[in-house]
Amino acid sequence: MLKIEQVKVFVCNPGRNFVTVKIITEQGIYGIGDATLNGREMAVATMLEEHIAPCLIGRDAHNIEDIWQYLYKGVYWRKGPVNMAAIAAIDMALWDIKGKVANLPVYQLLGGKSRHAVNLYAHANGESISDTLDKAEALIKQGFKAIRLQAAIPGLAVTYGVLGDKKDYFELQGSRPLPPEETWSTKKYFAMVVELFKQARERLGDQIDFLHDVHSRLTPIESARLGKLLEPYDLFFLEDASIAENQDNYQVIRQHTTTPLAIGETYNSIWECKSLIQNQHIDFIRTAATHAGGITAMRRIADFANLFNVRTAPHGAPDLSPICFAAHMHLNISAPNFAIQEFVGFDNEQLNQVFKHNYTVESGMAFVSDAPGLGIDFDEDAAKALPYKRSYLPVSRLEDGTVWNW
Q1: Catalytic site residue from 123, 215, 291, 330
Q2: Catalytic residue of the set 107, 160, 169, 267
Q3: What is the reported pLDDT for 156?
């Protein structure tokens, strides 16, 4: 038996906020997990400290499945983003411990490799179409073969996916003490986005995979129209075309376009994916280990998706710490139906002081560490020197002031 002796929770801001869990066993072996929930970090930290940690002391860290079921089914209020982020962090930390005890990387405990490396897609975000394509060219020279293209919409002051005068994601998203409000116009967006991909194919050729994120700002019939308009440009996938709280929305989109569809970054459990996957209304499921219950839950989603020809493409935005990226790497290298991993890089110096990792990226592909466990470590002292700062994602409004989908 490997008894859990302590569960520690850290909230730090190395450029943006992250919630990290550290589980320590009586033998001194420890594991780490990511519990970050962007804009609600302190809610998850409280859930862990006040409600989950006391229930784990003395339990056997080897019993990952039992602990997952205990935390998920042992409360009346199941699912939900706060609860599932907390469970996810515990789950990751336990897999990290098990790998260290076995002296094996986690992917070996998941059945070994299905591929030799993990395909990545990078982000090209520009103030104009030409700026976006300049950045895409630079990424292609670095070896990336799949690129998400986002460009500012002429006539709108702020556009999702565009950094503006901020140097990187961490500067942009780590300094929002109140939710910024952005203006959205579907008509102006349509005028820009088709031209973006027309020029992209003309300039960058047909050997690069293009992706695009709508971030749920269109109605289903608008999404269907966009998918149809983008068919000549052969997208790898169109992400979050519409919100899918009503799962039938994607039936409307699917029946009008053959552009591949991806969704799932806001989903917290397999139940939110179920209808979309089994009805084959999507092609890629984008759940994240941190938000959908950890490695244990993500394995189930991947296996279920595989039955219906749906591939995995985990969320990889900067609101997920390098611990979550490590968990994704082990899942991605092992899952037979993995497709592609979103990648924004970890070039922030403070971030790399807190999270010790050794990722290798070559020719647009990432190689998984063979270190025992998840292959990543956490510096408590560095984290304590970088305290939490309240920060929020933007809220979108139409030009008449209506709060719009996000």
Answers
A1: 215
A2: 160
A3: 80
